[in-house]
Structure formats: C-alpha cells, structure tokens
Amino acid sequence: MSAASRHGPWRVSIALLRPLATMAVTLAALLCVTFALSSLSPVDPALKRVGDHASRAAYDQARHDLGLDLPWPRRLERYAIGVAHGDLGTSLSTGQPVARDLRRVFPATVELATLAMLLATFTGLVLAVASAARPGGVLDSLVRLLSLAGNSLPVFWLGLLGLYLFYARLQWLGGPGRLSDAYEYTIDMPTGLVLVDAWRSGLPGAFGSAASHMVLPVLLLAGYAVGNVARLTRAALLAESRKEYVLLARATGAGEARVLLYHMLPNTVGVVLTVLALTYANLLQGAVLVETVFARPGVGRYLTTALFAADTPAILGSTLLIGACFVVINGITDALVHLLDPRGA
Amino acid sequence: MRAARRGWPAALLLAGCALQGAWASSPPRVLVVAQDLDDIVSLDPAEGFELSSMQAFTSLYQRLVQPDPEQPARLLPVLASSWQAGPGSLVFQLRPGASFASGNPVTADDVIYSLSRAVRLNRSPAFILNELGWNAGTVDQHLIRLDEHRVRVTWSTPVGPTFALNVLSATVASIVDRREVEAHARGADAGNRWLHDHSAGSGPFRIRRYIPHEALVLDANPGSPGDAPRLQTIVIRSVPDAATRELLVRVGDADIARDLGPDQLAALRGRPGLVFRQFPSAAIHYLLFNTASRDQPALANPALWQAARWLIDYQGLAHQLLQDQYLVHQGFLAAGFPGALDDTPYHLDIPRARAILHAAGLDHGLTLTLDVFNQAPFLEIAQSLQSTFGAAGIHLVLHPALTGEVYSRVRSHAEQAVWLYWIPDYSDAHSTASAFALNREDGSTSIAGRAGWHIPALSAQTLAAVREADPGRRLADYRRIQAEVQRSSPYVIALQERRELVLRSNVRGYRQGLNADMVYYDQVSK
Same domain for B456 and B505? Predict the structure, then answer.
C-alpha cells in the first residue's frame, strides 16, 4: 500500500464504511438469534396477553392476533419487514409501540451511562497513571484493591446501602426516582434527559433535585467502570514500560512524568479506547440493577421486565437497540484508533 | 487546613443537599403511593386484568353496581340509582345528573356501548360477561335502551338476577364515556389503544399521565357522582424493589408503601410517624396435583391427596415463616365472603400421612416435581413443603420458574404438582366455585379441569347452586360443595393472604376491601 493511500481519504473512508457493513450484518444476525431464542422461551406470550382465566376461544384468538399460529420463518419475515419499515411492533407489557417506549427510556440510560463514563474515564486514567508510576507501591495496591472492589461488590447491595446512608439516614442526597415528587411528572421531558429538561423547565430547585437524584446512581456505575478502566490502562502502561523506546527516552534524560505522559500514554491509546468503548457499551445495557434499585427508567430495566413477561416485540426491539449501540460504539472506536494511533501517523 | 481537607467530601455532599431543596415529605394535597406497576398491561377496563390496573379502575371508572367496601357480598348502586329484577332480566334506572370527567352525561347509550364493547373486544376479562351467555353475536339483543336513563339487561344462561348483578359489578363492566372513546377510536379498535393510557370514566379521579413502568398520576374529578375526592392528585410510583419502597415511606417521600416483605415490615415496625394496616385479601393459596400426569401415575391416587393434607405446616407457614401476612384457611371461598368455611380440620401430622401412604402402597419413595413461582414468598413455602413431605418419604423436586412459565406449564398439563394462588374475578361465590368444583370436560380452563379431576356430580351441584334463587339455600349449597372439595379434591387449600400496608401517620381515610379492585383513594386526606 502506498503512503498516499495509507494517509489519504481512502483510509478515512475505509474506517467509516467498514463499521457500517459490520453493523448491517451484525444486526441481521442478532435479529435472527434473538428471534430464535424468543421462540424457545418457555413462557407463552398469548397467555400473558389473555391471562390465566381466559377461555380457550380468547386464548386461540390471542395466538392468532400475535401471529403465534404461523410457522416461525413466516413470523421472522413479518417482523423483519416491520423493522425495515421502522415498526418494532407493540409491546405486550406496556401496550405501546416498542419504538415509542425505547424513545422514552433510552435517553435516561444514555444520560446516566455517559455521566458515569465521564467520571470513570477521568478517575480511571488518573489512577492508572499514578499506579503505573510506582508499580507495587502503596498507591498501586490501593488502586488494584479499588478495581477489585468496583468489579466485585454487588451494585444492588451498594445501591441500597448508599440509599440507606445518604438518602434515608443522612438525607444528603436524593433517593429513588429522577426528581422529587414536587417536580416529577409535572415538568415536560422533551429530550428525556432529566438534567437538561429540569434546567429548561426554569422551575426553581428542579435542576438541583435532578442533580441530587443523579449523584448516587452515577457514582455507583462509575465505581463499577473505574475498576475496568484503571486496571486495564495500568496493565497497558506497564507493558509499554518494558519496551525499548521507553528505555531510550529515559536514557535521553527524560523525567518519569514525561516518559509516562508523553511517551507511554499515547501508545496505549488503542487499548484505552477499546476499554472505554466496551465499558460504555456495557453501561448502556447493564445498568439494570441500578435502574431497579433507584426506580429509574432505562433500557436495561425495560428489557428485563420484557424478558420476565415474554414480551417478544419489546425483547427484540431493545436487543436490536443495544446491539446497534455496541456496533456503533465499536465502529467509532475502530475509526478513532485508526486515526489516533501514533504509529500510523 | 488539615480539617478543611478532611471535610471536603462532606462539603460536597452538603452542597448536594443544598441543591436538593425541600426534603422528606410528599407535597401537600398529593398522595404518593409506592408500589410495583410493572404488571400493568392496559388501563382499558375492557382489557386490564392485572392487580395494579384493577386497583386503578375503582378510582377511574364506575359500574352500575359495586361491592360495599365493608361487605363485598353486598352490592351498592353507583351509576344506577335503582334496579328492578324480573325473570332473566334487570332494569336499571341511571343516577340522575351523573356525568363523566369530560362533562358528558352518563346515559343508557353509554351503558350499552360499554358492555357491548367489552364483549366484542374479547380481551382477558371478557369471559366474566360471557357467563351471562353474551358473545359478540348476541350481546346487542341483551342490552335494550328503554329511554335516556333506563336500560334493560337480559341474559341467556340459567342464572338468577343476583348473579347477574355480581357479574355487572366486575371492573370489566365499567361504564366508559362513549363519545370520548369513539372520538379516539382508530380503525376497529374501539378506542382500545387510546384507553391503554387515558381514562374516560366517571370515577373520582382521571388519568393525568401514565408512564409504563414509571408512574400513574391521577387528578381529582370533582364532578364524579358521589363525594368529591379530598386530595387533588394521586401519584402511584412504580418502585420495583421492596427495599426501596421501604426507604421511600420511611423518609416520607411516599405516603403509602405496598407489598413490603416481612424483612422490610420488621425494619419499619416501631418507627415514629408510620402506621401499619392489615387488610384481608381474597387471594387463596393452594397446592394442586395434576392427576392426568403421564410421568407420575401416583398423582391420580386419592390417597396421595389425602396424605398431602396432613403434610403442610399450616401454622408454621402462616405465623412463623410468613410472619402473619397470611392466615390458615382451608375452604375455597375466602374468609369475609358469605358462605366461606372457617373450619380448619387439617394440620401437620406426619405419622398420619405416613399411615395413609403406607395403606395405599405409596411408601416406597415417591419423587414429585413441584412447580413454583421463583419469587417470595413462594420459594419459602415450597422449601417448607419439601421439608415436611420429605419427612413422610415424598421427595419434592422444586422447579422454580417465572410466573408466565409456570402458568404455561399448567395450561399444557406439563406439571406434576404446583403451588398457585387464586383471586376471585367478581364477588359472587360462583366465580370461585366454578374454578374449584366445576369440570365441564370440554377443555375449558377451570382449576378442576387443569387438575384432571373428573367430577360430574359435583359439577352438577355447582351449576345448580348458581341457578338457586333462594339466597339461604344457595349459601348452604356452597358450604356443602366446599366441604366436599376440602375432603376429596386433588388440591390442598392452605392459606389466605392478608395485605399489610405501611402508611404515614398523617394519611387518613384510606380504605381497601377483600377483592383486588377494592382500593379506595377518594376519601383519603393528609
């Protein structure tokens, strides 16, 4: 490959087009696998719809309405055509179009996950650099302990503990929900992002209430994410520290801080971006326990409720959304890694 | 300087506190209820048949007649001011001046539209109206408009007017505002999609906003027939986790917390500012054997059913394990309903059960699968059964599963034994009797049918009881049928629920009755 193609518009185009093709193939495969798994579910969606006391006629009618009397390839075809037209079907649990449900719950998840990710990225990188500066030191041990705790302590338990201490006992922070009762369900939520909508409402105290309710869930999610970021970035930095260019930099008389921040850290950008992307994608779909304990809406909780209710359209819709998030985030990460990798420059 | 450094985390949190503003009390004129709303499928009374939607219907809609909150067997006129019973018919006089939340008057056309609509939509609760012989093809001939405020209701099944009144007191017979619903109908949906999250009734409240899995917000409807509600707004917050509900009511952000477990209740007891109230519920818990099971022929042996009656630690379950959230009850009609049996002839007696099993040749190590919902308190109950049955040589293999999976297995007769509960669909005894003591042998889904219990004589008695016009004789019939079920059926009725709510002490006037829909917010003040 010529130098021109490596650095020219070709490189950018390939970096952008490849994820799009991957996304299409991945989502199609995801659709098929999720559909097959939903078909194998031991829970009968028709029974969920008509209830346990319904007559045989009502039950048969529900099976017909839901298309359950059709062979599964026909059902899959019907669903795929709907998806292609932007129709994700109607949720059996909420009675609403799945697309509308997802538009409502997704911004809440994005808001929570993004704030947690920003906090975790900053804290995780600082901790990783600090612990990689003196491997085996007190700070390094502390960071490893923190990473272990972040990954091992159950979020559910920590959430309840946090609520008990800071909400019920000390009354320093907001509790379950997204706003206090004085504002909840009274202010309009056009964006679905509670901080933005509370700010735009202009009601005195609304933003403070939203922020106060946000602190504990964000801290909890960030606590989980910071462990991943710090641990893997630290490992990448330590791997770099054994390479010859680091030895050369030190031999030229560069200080430890300069070696870490200007020589080693840029070379870990690929690892760091990948870790951040995977962690963020996990936060988007894996906040279910935090959403449950804090009674906040979100995709994770929506999907879990749908799973318990054998709500196939909601399961398929939210799985597709989460799958699309994974693919988009991975695609963007790949493109960024290509663009930012100093070895390619 | 050091002290200042140490204090910064606290300062940060205090800043959060300052941001938050007012604390620890729900707004005045607003009642905040913390409960799990995840079960709601629809708030259309012709479709909703879940606990949370049934509880909401009493606030949103009215029926011609409704059960008395204190005595559920007694029906009170609500949208009807009076009625006249004839052979196979009832003529209702509508309450003069009654209007819907929209301001539209309640007329005979609304009554006919509502009942006909529920039958035609044919969703979960429609089978209740089918008890009167109504179906999509015939319902219109049974609903006759006499004038603007009078309607004649007839039925084709051989039942008395008392039974018909009870059917019309079910939430599926709620009267909706025809003009409002028709204005929002799309295609042939009869407004069903719109009514999923809106209301068009004459109840004391109307829906301001319903956000699935988040909240149901109700505003007062001051024009509702009857007393105007005392509070302006009811916010029912969906809080799926019981421990979180406990914290909300403890702090005062919720005025009422529902469905707390024994642990949460124990943690709250003795705390100032809280009141505990227990309401009996019509929910009956029972063990069912599938006598038609192909995997385990012993399930068809009545000796096994008999032994099982002596293998449940009724008192231990109700008082120790479930901390008095249940009471021992062994008849299919819940205590509180007329005709309910209040005797409890069975108790834990392992030697007696062993003797019955020995005499029947079932003492050579029997293994049964017990299906159970994978949530509290069902798992705890199942573990207790496993222990007591094990003591008599019956090995119970527990099969915990999602509620939907358990019902799917029961419907397809795949279970061997299962622990279930039953809530009556309407106040008349026939609702429960037709489940436990009627097997039409036509593939219909009564509990007797699911158990594969063949009872032509008992089924005939059950059908005769619903036709009996004399109330005294009818109650005697149901007592006799219950005694037979208690003695010889392949199910063991064991417990009746009591629902314990925690309220803030400033909440007054909350009422709750036996049946699922009997939740009343209209007289609540704080």
Answer: no
Cα(B413)–Cα(A107) distance, rounded to whole angstroms?
Answer: 43
Alpha carbon of A136: minimum distance to chain B alpha carbons (Å): 27
Q: Half-sphere exposure (CA, 13 Å, Cβ side) for B523?
A: 10
Let me know: does A340 contact A273? Beta carbons within 8 Å: yes
Q: For the range A307-310, what are the long-range contacts, defined as Cβ-Cβ under 8 Å and sequence gap of 24 or more?
A: A308/B38, A308/B402, A308/B403, A308/B404, A309/A43, A309/A48, A309/A92, A309/A93, A309/B404, A310/A38, A310/A41, A310/A43, A310/A44, A310/A45, A310/A48, A310/A92, A310/B402, A310/B404
- The crossing angle, in degrees rounded to 10, of helices A312-340 and A269-286 is 170
> Chain A contact for B23, CB < 8 A?
yes
Higher pLDDT, B225 or B459: B459
pLDDT in tens, B425-484: 888 999 999 999 999 887 667 899 989 999 999 999 999 999 888 889 999 999 999 999
Instruction: Convert the pLDDT of each residue in A284-330 to its tens digit.
Output: 877 788 888 898 989 988 988 888 877 888 988 998 898 888 888 88
Interface ipTM above 0.85: no
Domain that holds residue B165: 65-180
- Reply yes or no on whether the pLDDT at A5 is more than 70: no
Q: What is the CA radius of gyration of chain B?
A: 25
Last residue of a domain, one of B131, B153, B180: B180
* Boundary-marking domain end, from B138, B155, B180: B180
Can you give the pTM of this predicted structure?
A: 0.86
Cβ atoms B136, B197 nearer than 8 A: no
CA distance B366 to B390: 9
User: Which residues of chain B are within 8 Å of residue A63 when distances are taken between CB atoms?
Assistant: none
Shortest CB distance from A171 goes to which of B23, B42, B403?
B23
Tokens of B452: 């594969």
Report the pLDDT averaged over residues B79-101: 94
Q: Nearest CB to B20: which of A177, A208, A301?
A: A208
Instruction: Enumerate the residues of chain A whose CB falls inside 8 A of the CB of residue B17.
Output: 171-173, 212
Q: What is the CA radius of gyration of chain A?
A: 24
Distance from CA of B96 to the nearest CA of A (A): 35
pLDDT in tens, B274-299: 999 999 899 999 999 999 998 899 99
Q: In whole numbers, what is the pLDDT of chain B averaged over residues?
A: 91
Residues B486 and B506 in one domain: no
B393 & B285 share domain:
yes
Q: Report the gap between the CA of B251 and the closest CA in chain A (Å).
A: 6
Residues B166 and B133 in one domain: yes
